[in-house]
Amino acid sequence: GGSILERFSGGDPSRLEATVGKYATETKSTSKAKAGNSKYPKLSTPSSPFYKVTQKRLQGVEKKLNEFNEKMDETLRLGDEEIGVLTRGIAVLQNTSSYHVSKFEPPFFAVVEKLLKWPTANVFPVMDMITAMFFHPHGVESFQSQKTGGVLLTAIISDISGHVLSGNKFAAKFGVKALANLAGSRRFQQGLTSMQSSDKQAIVNENRDIILGQFQSILSDKTVKSVPKISTVLATFTQNVAVCIAANKTESFFEGARK
Q1: pLDDT at site 54
Q2: Which pLDDT does position 41 carry in this prediction?
Q3: CA 101-146-151 angle, 5° bins
Q4: Which helix (H) or strand (E) holds 54?
Q5: Closest CA to 98 of 137, 60, 62
Q6: pLDDT < 50: residue spans in the chain
Q7: Long-range CB contacts (< 8 A, 24+ apart) of 36-44?
Q8: What angle do CA 129, 132, 137 make, to 5 degrees?
């Protein structure tokens, strides 16, 4: 029971900041202890997305999504029209030369929501697709504009977090990459602060707390940390979440200065 926020480990930015700082310190120490160059990323532009999904990989993603779709029961299976929407959305992602002008059609987001309801064992190609979407310059912006106050984006993050925290290491590996790209998006960071001026302030403030709380839960999760080769992904994720915290604090500072 309880609210959505109560299902997660708190959305207090100061608590999340402590979690981020602790993980970043641990990661730096581990990297320094290894021979050779440190794997801890040196981020000169921490607001840039970090994980690309190649055109060839997206072809495999589409093939795997169609394969899994055939195995789903009627409530989760995409119909012919939805398959068409999915195909066009993946085509947008594959055409990287048009990223500066291309956008996703609104029905595509409903298809993504439906795909995230698939069983965790089948959701990894969906995560790959979302990682690419969050790399697209209009991906996060499009999610945020679909419903007032970024409610759709919050729902998407909740679904991804549920899979990441399910105990399935495969889902954790793919899901954290998607969330790392999201947290690294300048649009997302700006969204955390612009929410303050929304007419639906109470709703968007709760959404922001939910998002920060989920980030904290993921960074604290032992199963996620145990995934092979995920330390670098989590380090990037940690850096990007830290930028989100800074954006949130900056807005709070200016809000206080206006009073």
Answers
A1: 87
A2: 34
A3: 135
A4: none
A5: 137
A6: 1-10, 31-49, 148-149, 252-259
A7: 39/231, 39/232, 39/235, 40/232, 40/235, 41/232, 41/235, 41/236, 41/239, 43/236, 43/239
A8: 140
